[in-house]
Every structure is written in C-alpha cells, then in structure tokens.
Amino acid sequence: MRSIWKGSIAFGLVNVPVKVYSATEQHDIRFHQVHAKDGGRIKYDRICQECGKSVQFADIDKAYDSPDGERVILTDDDFDKLPAAEKHEIPVLEFVPTEQIDPILYDKSYFLEPDSASPKAYVLLRETLEETERTALVHFTLRQKTRLAALRVRDDVLVIQTLLWPDEVRAAEFPSLEDAPSARPQEVKMATSLVESMSSEFDPTEYTDDYQTELRKLIDETLANGGEKVIHTETEKDDDGEDAEVVDLVAALQRSVEAAGKNAKSGSAASAPAKKAPAKKAAAKKAPAKKAAAKKASAKSADSKADEAKGA
What is the pTM of this model? Predict the structure, then answer.
C-alpha cells in the first residue's frame, strides 16, 4: 500500500504522527467503450458550447447555475479562500460512545500507521479508545475538503472513517408504512423461529462475488477461444494521459496526492531519461545525408585502424 496522506493526530497536548492509507479497494473489472462495428476505442473531447473549440483540462473552471438561471464561475483561488482545517493535522473534537454513531453515516475508511521512531503515542491513543469503548470525532482534510470523521480501533490498528453530514442522509418518509397493520403474535413467533434456525456467527470470507467471478471466467474463455469477439490491438501510447483528462478535478488531485508519497522522487527520476530517448532517435533519423556518410567513413576508418593494430 502507498500512503495518501501524512500528518498527525492532535490528541490534547499529545501529538501522534501517522500515515494514512486507503483501507478498501475495488476489484470490479473495468471496461471502456468501443465502436461496435470495428472495435475502435471511443474517445471523449471537451467541447465548449460557446466557441465550439476543444478545451484543455487546465483551462476548465467550475460553475454553479442558480435556480433563476444565473451562473457563477469559481476558480481555484476562490476555493482556496474557503475555511478548511489544518491540512496536516487531525484534531480530535470529542469522544462519544461508539454505539451512538448510526452506521448509515459511515462513508470511506482509512488505515493509520504510526509515523515516528517510537509508536508509544499511537499505542496510547489506541489503548485509551479500547479501554473507554469510545470513538473520537475528528476533522479530516483530504483533497482540499474537510470532513467529519470517526477515529476508532480495528484489529489493533487506528482507523478513520469519514462521516456523512446529517443533512446528507435522506429522511425515510413512506406514506405506505403509516397505515400498515401490525404483525400478529403468532406471525412474529414463527418469524423469530425462522431467524433462530438461520442464525450463525458472521464470517465475511464465506461470501464471494459470484458476478465478478463469472465475468472473469467469461472473459478468460473468450480470450482462449478467440473468434470474432477478440480483437488484437496495438498498445495505445499515452493511454493514461488520455484517461487523466477525462476524470474530474477531484480525481486529478487524488493522483497528485498519491504521487507526493515517499516513492514519487525515485519514480520521477527513473522516468525522466526514458522520455528523452525518443527525441535522440528522431534527431538521428533527420540527420543530413552528407553527415551520415561522413559518420560511416569515420567508422570504417576506425575499424581499419583497429585491424591494423591487431595485425601488428
């Protein structure tokens, strides 16, 4: 795993340095759209409705259309003026009983790893949460957005779970339930008996994603059998760059945060020479014929001298 955030938890006067990792990942098989006629990949372009020209991602701002039909355009500078918590600090707001947090409020989960020579402060906070059976409510700023989050313990590891704001949870108001008749005691007894017969300890490893398994099987069988559904294509160059332009600003910022991890410097240093190599090859191909002939002559001369030296 690669850390996506680095900072510290402000626990009173105690500072707990941590690294943050995404706790979950998606295993869904990703598809892209193709032309049904020839299998060619579909590309998307951002066209301005006013001028009809293609617009680069860097030249795009965000706009809000009011119910009255007025449009407000906001730039990155406008968003930077908005209030946000310290980007590299997770302040503890208060500690609440864990059972008081409605599970519907939980959003995304992140693992926290101690980021200091001595993890004593990390262990202290972890054991305190376990001893008190409470969850810490914190502010967590990620990708320029501050969220309310729950800090708790899972398998001896601190976990942050971002929470939805109360107004983000819809009210469950269904008129059909208002006049619904109550269940009879005999029906409740039979239903309870059925529940008890189907009861067991929860083990998530007993459940599998059958859809993804069968989908992968279908793809593998199609590749093995060949036929009209399999199209041999050349590897597309700069495919990642094309996808990067399709995604929105939030996804672009996410990649920027991930690239700022501890392996970013070594990765960028390794990739720099590779980009310059094609330019040198192209320059060699465009060299004038006279220069190329001169190079061949000098090479032959060097070879003859080497042969003479060997004969001597």
Answer: 0.61
Q: What is the pLDDT of residues 202-232, one digit of tens each?
A: 898 888 888 888 888 888 888 888 766 777 6
Comparing C-alpha atoms, which of 55, 57, 6, 25 is closest to residue 252?
57
The structure tokens listed for 73 are 């355009």
Strand, coil or helix: what is 24?
coil
- Taking CB atoms within 8 Å and a gap of at least 24, the contacts of 45-48 are 46/245
- In the chain, which ranges are continuous DSSP H helix? 76-80, 120-132, 175-178, 185-197, 210-225, 239-246, 249-259, 264-285, 289-311
How far, CA to CA in Å, does 136 sit from each of 15, 84, 102, 132?
A: 15, 19, 14, 11
Q: What is residue 246's three-state secondary structure?
A: helix
Considering only CA atoms, which of 261, 271, 262 is closest in space to residue 238? 271
What is the distance between the alpha carbons of residues 293 and 299, in angstroms, rounded to a whole number? 10
Determine the Cα–Cα distance for residues 14 and 16; give it in Å rounded to an integer.
7
- Say which amino acid occupies 148: L
